[in-house]
Structures are given as structure tokens and as C-alpha cells.
Specification:
CATH superfamily of the largest domain: Vaccinia Virus protein VP39
Distance between the termini: 46 Å
Order of helices and strands: HHEHEHEHEHEHHHHHEHHEEHEEHHHE
Largest sheet: 7 strands, mixed
Number of strands: 11
CATH architecture of the largest domain: 3-Layer(aba) Sandwich
Strand content: 15-25%
Shape: globular
Structural class: alpha/beta
């Protein structure tokens, strides 16, 4: 622990992050990426790992518990065996996370106080899945942190990572510089928070953060959100190439960035001559190009494994398609007449074409029917098997990169 790290530890004791209250658990479950159970099944295990097999998950730097609550609750609702191990060195954050777990009645969470850098000494065993969300970019040595996590993976396991990205955080680092002058870290945290609030109210309209509507922690994240965004003593952002080097340096293989569609430059470039140039780029360079030309990515989320891992088999008739936070029949009824889904990523609107049979297929996706069974239903309605196979492939090409149409873990 260096002096900066000591200040960081003190920050999260004073302001557990994110700012949460256990009474809110009765009203909502915060859902996102990484570490959504359906994403883990699909992107990490290729929809091959049986749901009946116990899952050991580690939340490395679990904070006040958003990811822990999400994964543990999803496992409980689905009747999935296993445990989620919350690991963090903040006693204040642990108090909040434990209270949230009690409010939900979750019994599949184990709380451990400590640093992810101490994993070899903690004796926690190996994990099938590890979440490290919003942690690596605060470490003195992110590479050492990721190496420690990689060393705790069980064979066939994988990680979900989230780190800050520079372009979408335009304005943040400028105000951080200003606050180092106005409110040095030698002052008590409450005094620094007050100064930061006053500065935000007084910052002129030319301040770049005022022109960045997608960063809102200083507005709606309470004192913890403001402190974490503008007063954090160590905050490093990673471009796509830098994150890829970090992942590969730990002996890991990137499976995807989330959402994959956002990292495809051809989604934004229609000029055939430019597309001829993008076709010559490798996957990391293509993702880096998408990051650079969109300018609105404030974070990067990546799933990665140690070495090659099986891909989801969309040609397996026994595979079960699932929708993430979408209802199949309702989505089918709401598809636009022109066959174009319109999605927005931090202000950037993208059109995604879907095939003619999209509504018919999506109307049968209920998390129980297999791809083969859906084909049988459509065949009984007079839809040719060849047409179903063709449009299923097109629908998968449209919605899997949106991280919305995935394959479930096999039940057995």
C-alpha cells in the first residue's frame, strides 16, 4: 500500500461506493454488465456448462454490493447451486452489502474482508467466474491485480472486467485537476466534497464535463458518486488496445467487449471505401477504431477466459435461446414495420435490421423452448425449415451483438 492507496482506502470507508441503502432492495434489483448470469453462461461458458453444476463466483472488490446482489439473486431465482464470494477491504462497504443481502434473504453469499492482491494467502480456492468491476483502474499496479485474479481461476473459468475508458469521460480529468488545487487530499473528505459541489455549481458552460451528459455520478450518485468521480486519488482510464494488452499480459483471452455491436466500426461507417479499410484491421484495431470515432464510451466491459473456450452453438437444436431483460412475445409484437430495430448507446442511435421471420421466432423465445422446438412450431405453421434456419442466423447476427439474444446453460 502506497500513500495514494491509503487515501483510496480511506475514501471507501468514508463513502462506500456506489451509494446504496438496504431499504431499496424491496423495490428493485440493479441489473447490468458484467456478471449477469445469462451473460456468464453465454460468453464465458459458451452455453455448455450445465446449470446443475455448482458455480463458484468471486466479486473481487465487491464494494457496496451491486454485482453481488445481482448474481446471487439470479442464481437463487433460477435455483442454481453455488456461492458468490464478496471480497473487499472496506469494512463500511461490507456493512452495506451484508445489510442488502439480509434484506433480500440471500444465503448464497459469503463475505470475506481482504484485498484481491492477497488471494493466494486468503485460501479461498479456485473460482469458476470472477468479477472485477471498477477496481483495476484504481490499483497501484493493474497488471499485478489482474494476474492475481487469473491465478484464482478454476480450469475453464473466466472473468468479467469493467474499467474506465478515456474518451467518454471527457471533462472528468480536467475537474479532477482543478480540485487537486482547490481541495487537496490533505483536507478531510467532507470538506473536499463540499468544495467539489461548489465547483460544479460554479463551473462555466465551457467546462467539458458540462457538455458530457453521459457522466452523471456527480449529479445523481450522492456524495459517494461525486467523491469517486472527481476526488478519487487514483483513476486510470484504458483505451481498447491498452485493455487488450492488460488482458493478454495476464495470460487471458478476450472473448468479447460488451456490447459487441458498439465495437464494430462498420455499424457507423457506410462508405464502402472506408469499410474496405476496416476489413484489413484485426479485431482489437477494429474495436479501437469504433472507440475513437464514437467518442462516447466511458467504460469498457470485457469477458475473458484463460485460453480458447467453446463458442455458443447456434446450430444445436437442443440449445435454448433466452432474451436478456426482454419478453419475447412482447418484443415480437413491438417490432417496427420496417424491420429495423433502433437502439441508442449513450446518445448514439444505431439501426439494426432484423429478418422477415424475426417476430415469429422471437414470439417463441420463452427460456424453455429449444431452437429445434421453435423450428417445429414454425414448421407446423407452414414455415419452411430452410427459411427458419436462414432467418434465425440473421436474427442472431442482429441481436447477439446487442447482448440481448443469448443461449442458456443446458439444464443437465
Amino acid at each position: 500500500m502506497d500513500a495514494t492507496d491509503a487515501r483510496l482506502a480511506a475514501q471507501y470507508e468514508a463513502y462506500p461506493y456506489p451509494q446504496r441503502h438496504p431499504r431499496e432492495e424491496a423495490r428493485r434489483l440493479i441489473v447490468g454488465s458484467p456478471s449477469h448470469l445469462r451473460e456468464i453462461d453465454h460468453w464465458i461458458f459458451g452455453a455448455r456448462r450445465p446449470a446443475s453444476q455448482p458455480l463458484r463466483a468471486l466479486m473481487a472488490g465487491g464494494g457496496s454490493g451491486d454485482g453481488t446482489m445481482m448474481l446471487a439473486q439470479q442464481m437463487a431465482w433460477a435455483g442454481r447451486p453455488g456461492e458468490v464470494v464478496w471480497l473487499d477491504r472496506s469494512a463500511a462497504a461490507r456493512e452495506v452489502a451484508e445489510a442488502r443481502a439480509r434484506a433480500r434473504g440471500l444465503t448464497n453469499i459469503r463475505f470475506v474482508s481482504g484485498s484481491l492482491l492477497d488471494l493466494p494467502e486468503l485460501g479461498l480456492g479456485a473460482f469458476d467466474y470472477i468479477d472485477c468491476c471498477g477496481v483495476l483502474h484504481h490499483l497501484p499496479d493493474p497488471a499485478a491485480g489482474l494476474a492475481a485474479l487469473a491465478g484464482a481461476l478454476a480450469p475453464g473459468g473466466g472473468l468479467g472486467l469493467m474499467v474506465y475508458a478515456p474518451h467518454g469521460r471527457t471533462g472528468v480529468y480536467m475537474l479532477q485537476d482543478a480540485l487537486r488545487l482547490l481541495a487537496p487530499d490533505t483536507e478531510p473528505p467532507p470538506e473536499r466534497v463540499e468544495a467539489a459541489r461548489r465547483l460544479w455549481k460554479q463551473a462555466p458552460e465551457t467546462a467539458w464535463l458540462r457538455r458530457n451528459p453521459w457522466i452523471t455520478d456527480h449529479i445523481d450518485g450522492g456524495d459517494a458518486g461525486l467523491y469517486d468521480l472527481l476526488l478519487n486519488p487514483r483513476d486510470v482510464a484504458f483505451t481498447v488496445p491498452a485493455l487488450a494488452r492488460l488482458i493478454e499480459g495476464a495470460g487471458l483471452t478476450p472473448r468479447c467487449f460488451v456490447e459487441p455491436l458498439r465495437y464494430d466500426p462498420d455499424r457507423y461507417l457506410n462508405d464502402p471505401r472506408l469499410r474496405a479499410r476496416t476489413a484489413r484491421l484485426d479485431p482489437v484495431a477494429r474495436a479501437a477504431l469504433a472507440e475513437a470515432i464514437t467518442g462516447n464510451m466511458g467504460i469498457h466491459i470485457a469477458y475473458c477466459t484463460r485460453g480458447p473456450a467453446p463458442l455458443p452453438d447456434w446450430e444445436d437444436p437442443a440449445a435454448i435461446p433466452v432474451l436478456r431483460e426482454l419478453d419475447g412475445p412482447a418484443l415480437a409484437k413491438g417490432l417496427p414495420a420496417d424491420g429495423m430495430l433502433r437502439v441508442t448507446f449513450d446518445g448514439l442511435r444505431v439501426g439494426v435490421p432484423v429478418p422477415r421471420l424475426a417476430a415469429a421466432i422471437l414470439g417463441q423465445v420463452d427460456g424453455r423452448r429449444s431452437l429445434g422446438e421453435i423450428g417445429d412450431v414454425l414448421a407446423a405453421r407452414g414455415i419452411a425449415r430452410e427459411a427458419y434456419a436462414r432467418d434465425l442466423a440473421a436474427l442472431r447476427a442482429a441481436m447477439e451483438p446487442l447482448n440481448r439474444l443469448l443461449l442458456a446453460a443446458p439444464p443437465g
